[in-house]
Structure formats: structure tokens, C-alpha cells
User: Fold these one by one.
Assistant:
Number 1:
Amino acid sequence: MLNKRTIDDLSVKGKRVLVRCDFNVPLQDGKITDENRIIAALPTLKKLIADGGRLVLCSHLGKPKGPDATATLKPVAERLSAHLGQDVKFLDCDCVVCDDVRKDVDAMQDGDVVLLQNTRFRKEESKNEEAFSKDLASVADVFVNDAFGSAHRAHCSTVGVTAFVKDSAVGYLVEKELKFLGNAVENPARPFVAILGGAKVSDKIPVINNLLGKVDKLIIGGGMAYTFFAAQGYGVGDSLLEADKIDFAKEMIAKAKEKGIELLLPVDTVVSQKFDRDAAHKTVSSSQIEDGWMGLDIGEKTRELFTNALDDAKTVIWNGPMGVFEFPNFAKGTLSLAVKMSEMNDATTIIGGGDSAAAVNQLGYGDKMSHISTGGGASLEFLEGKALPGVVAVQDK
């Protein structure tokens, strides 16, 4: 998957370059509240503009079931214009590609940029149906996929279009994701430590299975830890528990022992009787959670255990927070790992997208990590060992 053509392999001068971006940005009252995904696209766009390409940008935004004024990409065009220092013309067509859009694209000059309407205004998009793929291809000589966050989906704008536009490559953002995640999983500097958190074991089953064959240490925290507690015969009170995954947790504990992999679980837990920002709380041993209490973060001893486990690590991948990081009282576990990883100057530190990326950025340590993935679902599937359709579809070198 790493041997893909990149935009450095392309000759785009005078050509229409359809760039699949990830502009799925949060909107409030029509205003963008977080521009990170727009900013992440800029290196690829600036390179293609400098090389004389005629850029036709496309992306989805949200999950509209057809044309929807609340899911328009017009605000993205406005912010892109400001960031690029040139006009990004928004081609507002409910069917995304129509005759008027084709005329506007035909009138473009080298270095011009236009943005198509939300690809999910077309119902064919998520079904990867040929008609919309052909429409997209009709405004392209070259296709560039720079939307890692959508690379795990076989949609018209990520996969289908490549059947009709033969010249294709990945952008700098996707190239960087493949480099960091790919090297970490396939050729990591060791010791290699994976940290998994978040709410559910079921979300991470394939990841745990895959990583147990690759890591030197596996750290498990967050809501998913309580299913592992139950697998050891501990009571978990009112904590998150997937009773149907207890046997799986038992198998993983046994598998780690058999392979000689250090599996670290919380030894103490911050518990409360209410799921509330200001709820009264206390720290108890992981084997002593009482009925009526729920675990909301890892305890002080666990914070020390987990951070010490990273002392000699050369590669660290972290996916999923250690507790309810949105509440300051229950963010200490997540914060302790963010601080530790921010200080690991001799290691490759990778945040696997989703809630863990949000947590690290919110806590102010995002710029201290080697790489923060832009794709929660895509990075998880990559860590599972799955091929990503949006990457597979792009031409090999």
C-alpha cells in the first residue's frame, strides 16, 4: 500500500486535476468551527497550483440524503480563498456536476481552483454507482486522492472515478499517513508500544488481534478496560461493560501471555456515582469497584505505570482516550499520556485519529507529536491490517 504514485510523480500543467479532499468540517450556524482539515489540504493544493494544474476540488460534508442547504461547501470555498490567497470559485450545483459546471471547468486557466458542491448531494456517491463516477471523471484529466479520512470507503469520489480517470496519485496528506502508519505497523523502530482506549472493546477487536502480533507492549485503558476487568473476575459496578466480549478479553490476555507481550491494564480507577462534569469521585483499586459506582478515568498508580511503560519506547501508536477527557476531573489519565508522549523526542509518536486526536489537540499537545492521523475510521482499519479502497484504487508507482 506504500508504493503509490504521489503528486511528485505527476505532470499537471494545463490539466484538469480532480482532487478529493476531506473538507468534512464542523459547522455551526453556517460558520466553520474547526479549520484543521482545510489547513491539512493546503500543501497538496499549493504544489498542484504551482505546477500549473487546474484544480477541481471535491469533498463530502456530513451525511445529507440529497441536496441540503445546511451541508453546502460554500463556507469551505470562502476559507480556502483566504488561505490560498486567490479566489476559489464555488460551483453550486445540486447534482454536483452539470453542464454549467463543465463550462466553468473548461474556462479555467492554469493555477485556477474551483470547488464542487457536496458529493453526498448525489445518492449514488456512497453506493459507488457508475453514473456519478463518470460525471466526476468528465471534469478531470488527473485524479488525486488526498482524503485519508474517507480512504476506507469505496465511494464514487474515492474509488469509482479511478475507473474512468487513468492518471492518478495520492496527495501529500495521504502519503504522510501511509508513511507513518505503514512504517509503524510493518517496520517499527522497537520497542513498539500501542495504547488503546475509548469506550468499546467491540470497536477495537480487529486492531487488538492484529497488534498483538506486532507490538512489544499493549496498554489498554478507557471504557474498554472494564470488560478486561470482568474477564479477570472483577466486579465493575456501573462501569461500561460489554458482557458478550468478556470471553474475547480472556482470549487476548492469554494470547499476550503466550506471545510474551506485556499487556498492561489499569491497576486503579477513578470512580463516581454520576456521569457528570462536577461529580464527586474517588480512586479505588481496579478490583474494588463497588455497585453503583462507575469508572471514568485511570487512577494515579495507573498513570505512573502507563507512562513508565513508554520510557524505552521508540514507536508509540495511541488510539482512544483513557477516560472522559471532556470533563477536567476525568482527563488526568489522557493528559498524563499526552504529556509523556510530547517529551519523547527520540521516538515516533502517532495519534490514531478520532477522539484521541481531539483529546491531544484540546489539551494542547498536538504539535508535539510526530503525527496525528486525520482519519479515525481509516486509521483504525489500517491498524487492523485492512487494505483501504481509496488507496488501493490509486495507481502504483
Number 2:
Amino acid sequence: MTVSELVPADRPTFYFIGVTTEKSSIMKVFPKWAEYLGLGDTPIKGIDCKHHDDAAVYREVVRFIKNDPGSVGALVTTHKIDLLNAAKSMFDYLDPYAELLGEISSISKRGSALRGHAKDPITSGLSMEAFVPENHWRDTGAELCLLGAGGSSLALSTYIMKQKRREAWPARIVVTNRSEPRLAEMKRIHASINPGIKVDYVLATSPEVNDSVVGGLKPRSLVVNATGLGKDAPGSPLTDAVSFPEGGLAWEFNYRGELVFLNQARAAAKSRGLYVEDGWVYFIHGWTRVIAEVFGVEIPTSGPGFDKLSEIAASTR
């Protein structure tokens, strides 16, 4: 639904603020998770906003959730930065990551207080650790390439800079983006938190520039599509002529859509010895961390409990 269709909830209701929310697997997954987690009869409803929507739209969404007693909270995707920029003054509490990154992925309530959390540094880190081999960076001297300088890319680099020991740093992080402002903002934030990791920022006005960056990475390096291309917009940040790093890893942050980058990586997997990961585990961590915050429940990040939630989600896929 759109902002104009918002009506007071007649029972506790959880929201998903995105672009094409009805297409997300969460619409089928959440009711099953809610039953398993004992959340009661709590539906999930999508709120669709346009890319970089008007500030008034974001403020109306936040105002509705804040003032409606039946609205318990929301997960925010795509609009994490724009929503907070528009409605920051409406929040009673922002967690340190939200303050640092200038974005929120979780809206929750504690009593009358409206709270915003940036969960992506946690969820992206958990998701990366789930498939990148232990001691990979120390043992290989590999690099990390982040295609796109938006919120997800900033979150993963923040996790590494603030949570990882020196021996678990990539040899270098290289970030590319189509426009200069996001690179400049990332540089500004990194300047306050980078413990000494070498970072290169590349203005990539065409996929061919990204091809050149990826082609110059050390063997065993990790390449991440953090652009949203393939889900929120068609295409890939790379061309089909790209040469992925030998023995490397390719990570598509998305799990639905055309996923052109994912298909390019899979096509190169055999010839380049490439491990390919999509965004499914990231999806599960992203949602479960927000659900835990909104509903005040303990949800494991690994082990049998997490495996059960993954199994439930996979049954709808």
C-alpha cells in the first residue's frame, strides 16, 4: 500500500517500508516466523514509497507509526538514509550506528518513545562471516571490493573497521560508485572510524570502470554488488566481459529480481574458481535482527534456533 492508504491498525501490526514490498519473500515468511516465535496474531503490511521520495512522504510514514497505538514498528529498506534525513527529529532515540551512518533499518517503540536502529553493520557482518572462510583475509592477503557506496556498503565496511581485529582486515578495501557525493560521504564517515585499513574510492561512471577495478583485484578477493542493480533497478554494475579474481568470492546482496550480477558470477564460477553467494542469508539476518528489536524477543544468530528460522523461510522460497 501507499502512504495515502494508511489506516489505524485494529491489532498489533508490523510494517515493511520499501519499494515493491509485495514481491518480497517476507510477506510469506513473517506469518510463519510469528507463529514459531509466539508473536501472536500480528500481520505484516508493506508501505511502498518511491525511490528518493518526498520528505513529506517519509515524515507521514513515521508520524503514522509513532502515533498509531496498533503499529508496533517497521523494517526499512532502500529508504534508510532518506527516511532518517526527513524525519530525524521525530525519533526519541537513535542507536550509535544510526547516528554514525545517518540511516535506520529498524523503527521500534518502547512505551511512548520512538526508536531508530541501524542494524546493517550487524547483519552484514553476520552474513559475511557465514560464508567467508575463517582467517580468509589473514591467510590470503585478499582484498574487498564494494560496488556501490550506499548504506549497505557503508554498513559492511563499518562492521570491518569497528569489529574486526587487525589480522582479520582485508589487505585493501576498494569502493566504487557512479556519483561523487556518496563516495565523499563514505570518506567522511570512514575518516572517523578507520583504524588503518587502506581504502581506495573510485568514481565509476560506467560498468567498464568497475570491470577494470575488479580485474585488478588480488586472487581470492571478495567482490560485492551493493548497488541495488538487479533488484531495485535493472542491470549490473559490471559487464559480461569482467574478469573476477581467481579463486575469489562474489556476493550479491540481493536475493530477488533479475540479479544480473549473480548470473555473471555464476557464469564465471567454474573458470575462475569462484564461490558465489546470494543475499538469502543476509535477508534472514536482516529481518530477524529487526524483529528481535521491535518485539523485544531473543532470536539466535546461529545454531539450531537460527537454522530452524532459515528452514521455515526456505519452505516459502
